[in-house]
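Customer escalation, tier 2.

The customer says the design service returned an amino acid string that "doesn't look like it belongs to this structure." They asked us to rerun it and document both sides in this ticket. The original structure tokens are below, unchanged.
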């Protein structure tokens, strides 16, 4: 019987190549967007990203409306459209990617269609970008779900939430990119539970359904997907495969 793999990732702004690796190699992909949005460096990734270019202005930020109420969830964060960031982003992307081989093709097929829509919520913008990148690379998207739209209520605890995803979606394996120690409690013997190889860290014992994909194994320089898309175009799918 074929192993069914479920992947869970947060849909960041211009998210990295690894997200598309997970989408391509999973039977079910859940975009995790039902957690609390916190004011921290990690959560800046939801609306800010940096390009791999040697110029001073090499980052983009989507202005957001934050702090309107207590305990805002990620999928409730709205875009602040009155700042008219769209034109600035499009101009900056063109400038930063000007020397890349496939910039015009990526701009026309991926970037422009997303930026021309007026998304109300930040996560809608990010998911739309993910979907357009997938279509550009020929990756199927009919197995993509958002955690905020699931018809079952996952528990708040991260480990239990992941276990529930696996059970509810009828999968055997969970693929995540979190550090292996973050998925274990502090008193567990990491060495005794794991067997590392060049691709996966396989969890044994009670957590034998977990696969850990080390972040640094997949082109660590290209956190911003546009960097590699504009350089390699549709051949980017070969990295993912």
């Amino acid at each position: 019987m074929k192993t069914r793999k479920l992947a869970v990732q947060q849909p960041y702004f211009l998210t990295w190549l690894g997200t598309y690796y997970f989408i391509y190699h999973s039977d079910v992909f859940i975009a995790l967007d039902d957690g609390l949005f916190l004011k921290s460096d990690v959560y800046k990734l939801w609306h800010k990203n940096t390009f791999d270019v040697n110029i001073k202005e090499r980052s983009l930020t989507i202005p957001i409306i934050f702090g309107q109420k207590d305990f805002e969830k990620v999928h409730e964060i709205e875009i602040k459209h009155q700042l008219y960031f769209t034109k600035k982003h499009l101009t900056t992307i063109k400038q930063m990617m000007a020397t890349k081989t496939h910039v015009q093709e990526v701009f026309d097929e991926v970037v422009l269609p997303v930026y021309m829509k007026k998304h109300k919520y930040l996560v809608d913008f990010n998911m739309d970008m993910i979907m357009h990148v997938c279509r550009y690379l020929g990756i199927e998207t009919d197995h993509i779900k958002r955690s905020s739209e699931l018809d079952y209520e996952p528990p708040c605890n991260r480990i239990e939430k992941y276990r529930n995803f696996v059970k509810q979606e009828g999968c055997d394996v969970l693929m995540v990119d979190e550090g292996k120690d973050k998925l274990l409690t502090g008193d567990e013997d990491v060495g005794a539970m794991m067997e590392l190889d060049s691709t996966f860290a396989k969890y044994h014992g009670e957590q034998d359904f977990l696969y850990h994909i080390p972040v640094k194994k997949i082109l660590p320089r290209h956190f911003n997907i546009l960097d590699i898309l504009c350089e390699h175009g549709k051949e980017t799918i070969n990295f993912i495969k």
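Tier 2 assessment: The sequence is consistent with the input. Residues 178-212 form one domain. The longest strand covers residues 5-9. Sent an explanation to the customer and offered a walkthrough call.
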